[in-house]
Amino acid sequence: MVSSPHEAMHRIFQEHPDLFSRVSEVLGVDFGPPTSVTVLPTDLTEAHPLERRVDTLLRLETEDDEPLLLAVEAQGKKDPDKPASWAYYASYLLTKYRLQPILLVVCQDRATAEWAARPVHFGPRQWPLLTLRPLVAGPHNMPVITDPAEARKDLALATLSAITHGKDPDIGAILKAVTTALQDEPDAVKNPIIEFISQGLGKLPAAALWRKLVAVDLSFYKSPLFEEVRDEGRAQRAAEDVLAVLAERGINVPEDARERISGCGDPEVLRRWLRRAVTAPAAEDIFVVD
User: Fold this and answer.
1) 128, 98 in Cβ contact below 8 A?
2) Per-residue pLDDT tens digits for 132-177
3) How far is CA 69 from CA 61, 135, 270, 276, in A?
4) What is the per-residue DSSP string for 145-167?
5) What value, to the nearest 5°, has the Cα angle with vertex 228 and ends 76 and 139?
6) pLDDT tens digits, residue range 194-216?
7) How far is it, in rounded angstroms, from Cα 254 to Cα 248?
8) In Å, how far are 86, 127, 128 from 81, measured between CA atoms?
9) Over the range 230-257, which residues count as b (16 or more CB within 10 Å of their CB) and which as e?
């Protein structure tokens, strides 16, 4: 199953394809900004039943160089089978499009990034036939952007920085810089960035901090994330009401029942439990199905 961080790490290049030129500059390789971009099909499946699909594939055209194909792969962990797949992608793309391919691997932890960056040689030891050298973006080389002014200059790069540094001790300052930079931006700019970072952080502890910053610093009334945060706040208050009513009535609440009430995220279910809490002889009775 594809995870949210996986999607965010490569899809941001679909929304902001010119981000690649800034990332490559950070990585010490000079690729000029594209003058036009075409999103290509990601299905690299052959006629026989073997499916191979790259995460994001873009055709980039610049003023100075010939067009090139940018394949972006989001890599969450080490996978010994991946280098062979990446080599296949490169040869297939070159054969199909007759354009030079380049592979950018985006990682969220340093160990995976360092693994992905190692050149891999294919062929016998005496005469390697092919060498795979992907560009790799991760917490080891992406900038740590904690200055709102710097984040405002390049919101796409700041977004990728926040995603790749999701496990960084400074993630709080990174996320705060983004919310501060977004305060004066229109919703059309704000909302996609909010969603990308929310997806990119996935289930990391930083995701909870991001949600709080969104709720406190910004007003995303049209953002799905804001609606989710608002619903969670309602659910938390409703759970507290259920427990308060039971406590006021002197009803003992076992630990498993307390955890079930506190962990419920459905406001409608909590409202039903609240109505039952007024008369239920025992805490467990509020869970009885009508």
Assistant:
1) no
2) 999 999 999 999 999 999 999 999 999 999 999 999 988 999 999 9
3) 9, 13, 52, 61
4) ---HHHHHH-HHHHHHHHHHTTT
5) 25
6) 989 988 998 888 888 888 888 77
7) 15
8) 9, 22, 18
9) eeeeebeebbebbbebbeeeebebeeeb
